[in-house]
C-alpha cells in the first residue's frame, strides 16, 4: 500500500511538472523564440522550446565555417599557417568585417580568430574561398558536413550568415554542431571562447557577453540579422559538467545572453537528487523536426521606430516592452520554481551582464604570414600604422566636407568673377593677372566677330568661356 501511494505521488508530481513545462514552452504571441539546453557529453535534452522550428542562423553560420576549415587542418589539407588572400568578393562583404583591401594576405589562424570574435564576414569568405575554391564550393562542403553530423534541418548557401532565404537551421541542429566541435576538434576548441582580439590599436571584445562574465562560460558564437532576431550558441562548464544552450530570435543582444544564462542556470540546477521530477525529453538527435517555414522577425525586431542594427556588433535594439532581465522570459515564479527541479528562482543575470568582463590579455591578430618575436612586433606596428593612415584620410575628407558650402547654403559675401560675356564692360578687364591691362578704345567691345583681333585669353572667339 505504501509503495502504491509513493508511486501515485510520484505520478502526480510528474504530471504537475509536465503541465508547468508545457506552460513555459508555449510560444509567446508577441515574440516566439527557440530555446534548447543539453548536456554536452550525453546529448541529453534538459529543456526545449521550439527547438526544431526552422530558423535563419545569421552569424552562428560561422561555427560551421570554422568546423569545415578546422577539419581541413586536422586532415592535413591546410595548416593554421596557410596564407589566404582577400579577394574583391571577400572585401565587398557587408559589416561586420575587418575591411582589408583586396590582395591582403592573412593566415588561417588569424582569419579564424577575426571571424569568431569580431564576426568578420569578409574573413568567412576568405576561408571559404581558400578551403573550397569559391563560396558555392565551400557551401557544398558545409552541407556535406551538416548531413554527416545529422543536422537534418540545416542548409547553407554562404559561409557568413548574411541574409539568404535558403539558409536555414534549427536550435536542435546548432546544438548538434556545437557538440561536434567539442567532440571532433578538442585541440582547436579554444577558438570559440577567445575573450577579445587586438588588431593594431583596435581591441574587439567577443560579442558573446557570457564569455568572461558568466561563471564557467566557454563558447561559442552569436548571430544577428533582422529576419532571425538575436541568436546565441553558448556553453558553460561547472564541476566537470558541460552544458550547451541555444537561443534563437531574442529581441536584443542583452536578451539573448539573459535567455542563455537562464537555460544554463536551470540546467545546472537540475543536477541534483530531484532530477527525476523532470520529464525525460530524450537526446538532442532524437528531437522530431517540424516541417515549417522559418519565422521572419524583420518587422518585429527592426521595423517601426526600432533602430535597425548594422551588424551583430550593434546591440541598440531594445527588449520588447514589458520584459527585462529580471523576468525577461515572462515566466511566473511558480513555473520557474517547478521547472528548475523545486529549486528557488535563479539570481538575476543583470549584475554580471552589467559588469566588465574578467581581465584578460587580448589575442593579437595581424595580416601577413605567421610571425613571432621581433617580426610579430613589427607586423603589429605596421597594421597600427595602416589604421592611422586610414583615420587620417577620413579626417581630411571630413574636414573638406565641413569647409565646403553645401547646396542651398548662403552664398559667400565676396562676389564671384564674372565671365567676359556677362556684361560688355567685363571684356575690358585683363584675361590673366600676369598680363598688363591695355587701354581700350571706345566701342571696342561692340565690334562684330571676325574683326581680326584676338579674343582675351580664356574665351572663345565669340566672347564665351572656352571649354
Annotation keywords:
single chain; 467 residues; 5-stranded antiparallel beta sheet; 3-stranded mixed beta sheet; disordered C terminus
In short:
It is built from twelve helices and ten strands.
Order of helices and strands: HEEHEHEHHHHEEEEEHHHHEH
Largest sheet: number of strands, sense, barrel closure: 5 strands, antiparallel
> Distance N terminus to C terminus?
110 Å
Summing up helix and strand content along with how strands pair, one would put the structural category as alpha+beta
Strand content: 5-15%
Q: In DSSP terms, counting alpha (H) and pi (I) runs of 4 or more, how many helices?
A: 12
Uncertain segments are 15-30, 314-346, 404-467
Q: What's the β-strand tally? A: 10
Question: What value does the average pLDDT take?
Answer: 77
| Overall geometric form | globular
Rg of Cα set: 32 Å
Helix-residue proportion: 25-40%
Would you mind describing this structure in some detail?
- With 467 residues, the chain is α+β, with helices and mostly antiparallel strands.
- 34% of the residues lie in helices and 12% in strands.
- The protein is built from 12 helices and 10 strands.
- The strands form 3 sheets. It has a 5-stranded antiparallel β-sheet, sandwiched between helices. A 3-stranded mixed β-sheet has the order 6-5-10.
- The radius of gyration is 32 Å and the shape is globular.
- The termini are far apart.
- The relative contact order is 0.13.
Amino acid at each position: 500500500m505504501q509503495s502504491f501511494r509513493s508511486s501515485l505521488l510520484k505520478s502526480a508530481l510528474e504530471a504537475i511538472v509536465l503541465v508547468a513545462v508545457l506552460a513555459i514552452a508555449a510560444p509567446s504571441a508577441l515574440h516566439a523564440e527557440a530555446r534548447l539546453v543539453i548536456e554536452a557529453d550525453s546529448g541529453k535534452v534538459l529543456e526545449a522550446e521550439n527547438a526544431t522550428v526552422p530558423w535563419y542562423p545569421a552569424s552562428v553560420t560561422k561555427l560551421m565555417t570554422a568546423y569545415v576549415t578546422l577539419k581541413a587542418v586536422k586532415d592535413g589539407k591546410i595548416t593554421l599557417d596557410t596564407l589566404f588572400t582577400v579577394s574583391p568578393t571577400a572585401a565587398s562583404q557587408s559589416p561586420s568585417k575587418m575591411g582589408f583591401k583586396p590582395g591582403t594576405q592573412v593566415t588561417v589562424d588569424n582569419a579564424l580568430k577575426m571571424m569568431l570574435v569580431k564576426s568578420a564576414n569578409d574573413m568567412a569568405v576568405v576561408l571559404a574561398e581558400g578551403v573550397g575554391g569559391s563560396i558555392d564550393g565551400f557551401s557544398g562542403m558545409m552541407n556535406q558536413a551538416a548531413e554527416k553530423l545529422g543536422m537534418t534541418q540545416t542548409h547553407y548557401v554562404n559561409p557568413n550568415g548574411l541574409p539568404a532565404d535558403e539558409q536555414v537551421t534549427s536550435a536542435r541542429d546548432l546544438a548538434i554542431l556545437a557538440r561536434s566541435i567539442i567532440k571532433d576538434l578538442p585541440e582547436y576548441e579554444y577558438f570559440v571562447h577567445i575573450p577579445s582580439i587586438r588588431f593594431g590599436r583596435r581591441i574587439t571584445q567577443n560579442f558573446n557577453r557570457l564569455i568572461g562574465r558568466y561563471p564557467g562560460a566557454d563558447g561559442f558564437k552569436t548571430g544577428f540579422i533582422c529576419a532571425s532576431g538575436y541568436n546565441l550558441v553558448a556553453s558553460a562548464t561547472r564541476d566537470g559538467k558541460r552544458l550547451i544552450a541555444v537561443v534563437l530570435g531574442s529581441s536584443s543582444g542583452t536578451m539573448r545572453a539573459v535567455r542563455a544564462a537562464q537555460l544554463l542556470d536551470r540546467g545546472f540546477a537540475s543536477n541534483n537528487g530531484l532530477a527525476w521530477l523532470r520529464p525525460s525529453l530524450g537526446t538532442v538527435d532524437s528531437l522530431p523536426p517540424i516541417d515549417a517555414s522559418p519565422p521572419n522577425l524583420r518587422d518585429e525586431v527592426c521595423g517601426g521606430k526600432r533602430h535597425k542594427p548594422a551588424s551583430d556588433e550593434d546591440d541598440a535594439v531594445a527588449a520588447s516592452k514589458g520584459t527585462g532581465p529580471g523576468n525577461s522570459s515572462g515566466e511566473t515564479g511558480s513555473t520557474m520554481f517547478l521547472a528548475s527541479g523545486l529549486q528557488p528562482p535563479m539570481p538575476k543575470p543583470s549584475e554580471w551582464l552589467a559588469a566588465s568582463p574578467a581581465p584578460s590579455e587580448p589575442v593579437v591578430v595581424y595580416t601577413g604570414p605567421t610571425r613571432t618575436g621581433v617580426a610579430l612586433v613589427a607586423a603589429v606596428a605596421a597594421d597600427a600604422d595602416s589604421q592611422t593612415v586610414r583615420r587620417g584620410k577620413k579626417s581630411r575628407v571630413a574636414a573638406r566636407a565641413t569647409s565646403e558650402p553645401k547646396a542651398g547654403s548662403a552664398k559667400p559675401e565676396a562676389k564671384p568673377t564674372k565671365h567676359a560675356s556677362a556684361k560688355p564692360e567685363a571684356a575690358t578687364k585683363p584675361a590673366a593677372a600676369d598680363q598688363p591691362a591695355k587701354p581700350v578704345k571706345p566701342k571696342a567691345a561692340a565690334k562684330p566677330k571676325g574683326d581680326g583681333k584676338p579674343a582675351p585669353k580664356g574665351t572663345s572667339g565669340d566672347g564665351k568661356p572656352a571649354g
